Amino acid sequence: MSEPTVEKENLPEELKPDVDLNALEDPEEARAAADRLREALRYHNYRYYVLDAPLISDVAYDALIQDLKALESEFPELQTPDSPTQQVGEEPRDELGLVEHPLPMLSLKAAYESAEVHNFDETCRRELGQDSVRYVAEPKYDGLAVELIYEDGRLTVAATRGDGETGEDITTNVRTIKEVPPRLLEQGDRPIPEHLIVRGEIYMRRDEFRDLNQMRVDEGKRPFANPRNAAAGSVRQLDPKVTARRPLHIFLYVLVEADELGFETHWDALHALPRWGLRTNLERLGRYADIEKAIDFHRTLAELRDDLPYEIDGVVYKVDRLAFQTQLGSRSRDPRWAIAYKFEPRQATTSLEDVVFQVGRTGTITPVAILEPVRIGGVEVSRASLHNQSEIDRKDIRFGDTIVIERAGDVIPHVVKAIPDARDGSEEAIEIPASCPACDAEVLMSDDGKQASCPNPNCPAQLRESVTHYASRGAMDIEGLGEKRAEQLINADLIVRLSDIYRLTVEDLVALERFAETSAEKLVDEIEASKETTLPRFLYALGIPEVGAHTAEVLAQHVDSLEALRTASKEDIERIAGIGPQISRSVAAFFRDERTSELVDSLLDAGVMPVNPYRDEAQRPLAGLIFVFTGTLGRWTRDEVKRLVARLGGRATSGVSGETDYLVAGPGAGTKLEEAEDRGVVVLNESAFVELLLERGVDESDVTGLEM
Ligand SMILES: [Zn+2]
Fold first, then answer.
1. Can you give the CATH number for the domain in which 70 is found?
2. 364/233 same-domain check
């Protein structure tokens, strides 16, 4: 038997029976041990599949399954058809309707160490009588496994795995997922088979998951624990309209009975899928005859894991040659030609030592658990989000509790649940404080009593969060302006409002502690460079409630410019596909609000020029052109003309370089004019510039220089 690393779980014996297999000789004792394991496993299945609230990590669960399997193989008389080792997945939900799988949907045997993969390879080679066996390696997606059946090229059935024999009928819901073709494409040299069964995984991308969860938390709804639960919950819906609104994706990874369709290898079958319009992640496939190389694939993917937009929890190795797969067959419910080599788990158990109340950029107060540090997937975690008071109450989490936390990629770790059985009576209730921990203002509670916030617009904690968010990588990407730096600058009164970052000078910075001249110069350069940005980045950076990175992209795809969005009505915004009433209300309110509107103006006045990369060329008459302005213009101030150029798709930079297309010079032009002439850059006066604009189809109202 394999020996997976099992983390210490603070669970009572009956939920995590410790069975010493070597010490078991008496069949009666073995029977009692098997009963204990089964009882525990049934309970954990119920927690996982029915409640969506597992008590133990996947690793710990698999260890129990392995113990039971080992016990059953040593004492075959203990095997029963209803043993958890004989079940693949969840109990199907009757309300959805049931579908019998044409062939059972098997689960994969899991490995946690490379030695187990070597064993797998040895067994395959021995059984097949081959010196080496070729494997296809693919990511193991952490989503919802599904089966799609196409008859004469039309999608007729979509089903969950269910218990492996029978799944839930999710056809209506799956039809709402854009990436699932209702009809197969006919192209290339492979005609569409009359009868085609494919299997794959429905998943939610991490950024979309984050946005969805943020929205749910803001609405006082229960957030999903992870992208997998969010995807599963979205698909296993009774109302397909709910599914349709959720951002869902699919990767197909098995063509069932591919040999009967004329394929010799799994690899070839996978490569045929996209030609029928079936989405397959060919980019992340590997094929190896050398098991060491196959294991390297696991290592590489583990390193890439946090950078992938979707969640994966391991690598699946499948014997490539289909005839070999048939030869190897399956044992109980595991195919013998495949194995899942899992990554380190994302969940861990630790204790909650303290709770701090963090003030967000919009004033919301979030309880954050301070933990006894614990390693999850190679990263040490000492803080985890508790979301809000209603989540604390719902999960009944107390000071001093033993808790399970989960880290999902770059998502901030969160507390999954407490383990009440581990309490000794000294645990205490957690409550939101009455005053803001940063500025002492009296804390406001939302009407439903779920969300606490600091109402003080000048709260230093809110400003620090705004600055940090604005500068973050997905936003304006100003390197070197993290939380510590922001706090330092705010404390020194150098930043009183967000746009003040554009007034920082090297002299200001070097006067502060821990600021070397070079890092001061670097930061000022970074800040300057951030002025040239894209509309989605800027929208995200503004920290509009409900607008995450993904929503910012969607908005930018559907509006011409920042100005257009600022003047759009709630109804205009709501007409955009993928934007619900919640977001549109929030966006419209943000740009109507005097304070936030002033904030946007102050940033634009400071020289920030968001360009919308989604505007097509016709709407971007200056696309690809770089302008430099010098001297005074009659129609526009310097900032106005820069904004105009940005809006029309061009770029305005401050210095003449080899890339500059035009220098626009007004009276009082300085050295830039000489530089431009030296470099052979075309120099335009104001009227020639206006002529150029009109020639390129710019609307006359844009060249009046009046309100843009
Ligand atoms: Zn405050």
1. 1.10.287.610
2. no
